[in-house]
Amino acid sequence: MNDTIGFDLYFPREYLKAALIGSFLSVSVLVGVFCYLNRYTHRRYFSFWTAAWIFHALWLGLCIASLNVQEGPLLMMLKQWCVGASAVFLLWGSARFLKQRTRPSQLALFLAFLFIWSYIGVYQFDSLLQMELPLFALMGLVSLVTAGCFYRFRAEQRYLGAGLLASGFGLWGIYIAAYPFFQSSGQMISSGYFISAVLQLFIAVSMIVLVLEEARNTNQLAFRKIRSYKSKTVFLQRKVMSTEERYRSLFDQASEGIVITDAEDLRILELNQTAKRLLGDRGGWCADQL
Question: What does the pLDDT look like over 182-197, one tens digit per residue?
Answer without folding.
Answer: 877 767 788 888 888 9
